[in-house]
Amino acid sequence: MSNCEKTQNISRCLQLATVLEVSVQKPGNVSFEIGFQGTRAEHFLASAVAVGPTFQKAAQRGVEVLEGRLEAGKVGVGELIKVCAMNVAVWQQGGNTILGTIMLLVPLAVAAGMTAQKKDTAIDFSVMRRNLKTVVKSTSAVDSVHLYEAVDIANPSGLGGAPDLDVSNPNSKERLIKENVGLFEVFKLAQDYDDICHEWVNNYPVTFDLAYPYLEQQLNHKPLNVTIVHTFLKILSTRPDTFITRKVGKEKALEVSSEAKIVLELGGLETMKGRKSLKAFDKKLRSSGNKCNPGTTADLTASALALATLNGYRP
What we know:
315 residues, mainly alpha, Triphosphoribosyl-dephospho-CoA protein, 16 helices, 66% helix, 0% strand, globular
């Protein structure tokens, strides 16, 4: 497999994962059946198209690290995330769609590029995960500033209140450079506040240890829509969604997780009771003006789907 073929494959895998995540009706989230005010499924599809070239560039920089032509600290993860955010803003008008997904998938693209792989062989996730740790720990203060600028561009809701270097504080960017705070260190500060940051700092435990094994097991004998929805519910029932926590509090996030667990125990999409419970759960999440949208759980679901597509899954 040539480097060009490898990087194209990685990019397409991550784009496919992004598309698959929005293709099913997950409770409280945008889908083809229902959207939010001003944000619909087509905005997510356009976003997935927009990030393709940058995913490929991220994978190419990973290849260059593998071949010794680039230092891991020079990959420019923050810049790549920022370029993704810029392209998403150009290609659709639905506001913030996939910033959290981008923040998870860009390092995965770099790590996949860094992982040696023979044609038609499955990617070695143990090696890729070690590479992923190297990628995120090698980030610089410049990466931090670029990430903050990406947030400015995407303008996601539910931010503010971080213990230090808050992204909404106009003085934070200057401090990042002055105090030489790399992006990994920034995410350390926010890991209890945001599960995207928690993934970065702890080598993607939800993605690799919880979501992907469950997803892979489901894929072996269940339809794709069932697999994705159930994986989403599995994550949500195990990890209270930090997006919900920031918007309406920890107690509400725990309540949502408990309800997700009940839906899954009732059979989810595979039983009449499960489907009825899922429908009621979805309606309840939407009744608060989408303040209980499990957006971080959706990002983690996309991250697990990325591993599946990188490992050869095709719908």
